[in-house]
Design brief:
The longest helix has 14 residues. Strands 1-2-3-5-4 form a five-stranded mixed beta barrel. The protein has a single domain, classed as OB fold (Dihydrolipoamide Acetyltransferase, E2P). The chain is 17% helix and 33% strand. The radius of gyration is 19 Å and the shape is globular. A hairpin with a 7-residue loop joins strand 4 and strand 5. It contains two helices and five strands. It is of the alpha+beta class.
């Protein structure tokens, strides 16, 4: 009887879907994407402590620089605490920044 109750408990845990909050992470905006392709252009951010353009695991940002309060001619890299949502376009390489706070 205890075995059935234990199995039922584990199956009920497996059926419950957990919702993860959009936790803040440190991101480094490395500059503008100058490639010419359908899914290119805009600001680039790296979430793995890489400061060079096109290096490491980088994402394209859906927001404009003006949306984030980044002035024209800003010096890169820009370190920020961000929360983001990954968008379902351009093979998962585009994110929308839900919050953006410069830290350096």
């Amino acid at each position: 009887m205890k075995t059935k109750a234990l199995l039922l408990f584990f199956f009920s845990l497996a059926a419950v879907q957990c919702k993860y909050e959009n936790l803040p992470v440190i991101g480094i905006i490395t500059g503008y994407d100058a490639r010419l392709c359908p899914c290119c252009g805009g600001l680039m951010i790296n979430l793995n402590n890489e400061t060079k353009l096109y290096e490491g695991n980088f994402y394209l940002i859906d927001n404009t620089a003006a949306d984030l309060g980044i002035p024209a001619g800003a010096a890169f890299p820009i370190y920020a605490q961000v929360t983001y949502t990954q968008l379902d376009r351009c093979p998962g390489n585009v994110i929308h920044l839900d919050s953006f706070t410069k830290i350096k």
